[in-house]
Write a structure and sequence with these properties.
This protein has about 70 residues and is mostly beta strands. Helices cover about 0% and strands about 60% of the residues. The protein is built from no helices and 4 strands. A 4-stranded antiparallel β-sheet has the order 1-4-3-2, with no helix packed on it. The chain is elongated. It starts with a strand and ends in a 9-residue tail after the last strand.
Length: about 70
């Protein structure tokens, strides 16, 4: 199991009503305990709307409330 340890979003331009947005995710680093992931959101004109970076930390076990 893993949990989010950090996240940031840079909003670079507004997304307009009716626009088709596409998100592309890339694993930048994934180790035994941590991971870094970048996501780029573009519109139909291939212009970047937002950039997201998330970091994860593996905690082991489950996170569903099971004991």
């Amino acid at each position: 199991a893993a949990v989010a340890s950090a996240a940031s979003i840079d909003f670079l331009r507004p997304a307009l009503v009716g626009e088709l947005l596409t998100a592309t995710a890339r694993v930048k680093q994934q180790g035994k305990l941590t991971g870094v992931y970048d996501i780029e959101i573009i519109n139909q004109q291939q212009k970047i709307v937002a950039l997201f970076r998330g970091k994860s930390h593996r905690i082991g076990g489950t996170i569903t409330g099971e004991v």
